[in-house]
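Box 4.2: Ligand-aware structure prediction
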Amino acid sequence: MADFHTCKKCGAPLGQDDIAIYKKMVLRTADEFLCIDCLAEYFGVSREAIEAKVRYFRESGTCALFR
Ligand SMILES: [Zn+2]
């Protein structure tokens, strides 16, 4: 896929979940993103808390960002 992004802070390659949760929690129209680790640090929460949100949105099926 041509749609390849890296974390703007640490440069880690990003998956769809990383991008989706960033858009959901930070800025829907963002074109730069943080990985889950850096996003957790940004919000001052644990990585597990972010991953739990990813799971929640994915399983709830109500958010178009998570498919
Ligand atoms: Zn990062």
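In the box above, the bound molecule is zinc ion. The mean pLDDT is 91.
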